[in-house]
Design a protein that fits this description.
The complex is a heterodimer of chains A (about 190) and B (about 400).
Chain A lengths: L1 E2 L8 E4 L2 E11 L7 E8 L5 E7 L3 E4 L2 E12 L2 E6 L5 E5 H4 L11 E7 L2 E6 L3 E9 L12 E6 L4 E5 L7 E5 L4 E6 L2
Antiparallel strand pairs in A: 1-6, 2-3, 2-6, 3-4, 4-5, 7-8, 7-10, 8-9, 10-11, 12-13, 12-15, 13-14, 15-16
Chain B lengths: L15 E13 L2 E5 L4 E6 L10 E8 L3 E11 L11 H32 L3 E2 L5 E2 L12 E2 L6 E3 L4 H9 L4 E9 L11 E10 L3 H20 L3 E2 L6 E2 L5 E4 H9 L3 H7 L1 H12 L9 E6 L15 E8 L2 E8 L4 H17 L9 H10 L3 E7 H9 L16
Parallel strand pairs in B: 3-5, 6-10, 14-15
Antiparallel strand pairs in B: 1-2, 1-4, 2-3, 4-5, 7-9, 8-9, 10-11, 11-18, 12-13, 15-16, 16-17, 17-18
Helix pairs in contact in B: 1-3, 1-9, 2-8, 4-6, 5-6, 7-8
The chains are: A mainly beta (about 190), B alpha+beta (about 400).
Chain lengths: ~190, ~400
Amino acid sequence: MADTGDLKKGFKLLIEGAPWQVVEAQFVKPGKGVAFFRTKLKDMQTGRVIDRTYRSGEKLEKADTEERTMQYLFAEGENYVFMDNETYDQMRISKEQLGDNVFYLLDNTNVDVMLFEGRPIGITPPTFVELEVVETEPGFKGDTTSNVQKPAITSTGLKVNVPLFVNQGDTLKIDTRTGDYVERVKK
Amino acid sequence: MEATSLAALSGTAAACVVVVAARVVHQAGPELALLDASGGCRAELAEGAPPAPGTWVRLSGRWDGQVLTGARVVEAHVPAAPWPRAGGEWRWLRDDDDRRLTLLRLRARLKDAVRAFFADHDFLEVDTPAMVPSPGLDVHLDAFGVSGSVAPRWLITSPEYQLKRVLAGGLPRVYQMARCFRRGERGPLHEPEFTMVEWYRTFAGSAEVMADTERLVAQVAEAANGRPVLLGRSGAVDVTPPWERLSVTEAFARYAGRDAEALLAEGEEAFFRVLATELEPQLGRERPVFLTGWPASMASLARLDAEGRADRFEAYVDGVELCNGFGELVDPVEQRARLQRDRASREAQGLPAYPIDGRFLAALEEGLPPSGGNALGFDRLVMLAAGASHIADVLAVPSGRL
């Protein structure tokens, strides 16, 4: 059994049978009054964030989640198929559950899949992925210093702002935490 | 020869021989850049192997108005670890453009401003013990016990009992800048160990002490920012007296559309939940506010007023509870009854039931005239003065770095 002392960023708890993750937790206490923890919690299945205030000392239920490394195999309609690298079991995760992470899926690459009670509820892609540009305005050669950017679209459908020198067919390193361009990769 | 601070060099006549104590932060050939807590300067070594960056040095040299010329290393201390180290003390104090160092300097200055205020108003500074036979019986405050003491001792949660004994002893105006300790409190506005400015004046009530508070805070704000303004956490607050007085009942109605009495009838938790999450963030924006007229059940050590409400106030500045003051309860019979009730209540909730401080009650019996007092969080005042968002920002070594 956990309690409010465990309410730290990243802690996973069960609310009405569903797993939530602490995004932010703050101790608040009127000087001569009852202490509380004000939290922001993220629904691990939908990504929805809510505010919730717990009385200090309240008991909490820890969510038992498990992270497993799986290989992304292919898309099948609205579902994406993954294979557990240890058991070779295949699992389907819906496009909705994956959210923006669908843009970082490359065939036969590994991702961390979050399981709750044996069911997949989301994935964590590698921090950096390399994606090919399929659409952007032609680049200006030599312009490697200015901060001006232009839009580009990758083979996975990710829309990203890139420097002017980037061309169609270039491979880009993308930070999956922010969805931002990091650098152009020489192939 | 006493070392001159680097900032003081600019006021030193050229061609003077000086000694400085500082850290070498940059070195190229015989040219050094030095930094101490006050500022920086350049130096040119006359001879010898130049000290590497990170080395502490005492240097003597001739100040030419710009550079310390012909400098000689009097003494050097080379760090054992690579410098500067991630997470190390140098980085902690200097990161973010010396932000923390600036706040520590401000903190020291504001402590002086507080002392000047009380000296101007004829308050005597007294230092009462941090280890006491009873830390108070407030249901919502938990104390740290002291191990190794012969008689049971706890660390104070506030210096209230002992200051009132001093007051009853015949000192009409006293204050203390006390280190206080509260178990289980840590957050953006809480540290388990913090500094409280606590003062008492006889033949006074909360009206006089609220007036003290306004003037003290305005004077401290002037010392910090040159005008009576605190930078606040979300925006600047003009702290020019007088501040608004708002009853708890009005505040609940105005900021949460709730009936404070009805909430209290549901239980203390419901009351404080609304106070902490709905009211507090809105209180004291742009101008500070005193919350007055607290429910009798929250009187603590305050007397009750004619309407049966606690003669207690709290000041809020930009959503931060800055202080808690009372028209003090001086009736020894009522005080004993309340302490016994609080103690029973702690016991019933399974909380440590600390002893009742007999000498505090004896002092009330010997005679404490009608008095007013206030306890103000000094760390929070520094935060608000500087616009810092976390109490740890205004501490040299916060508890999280121990």
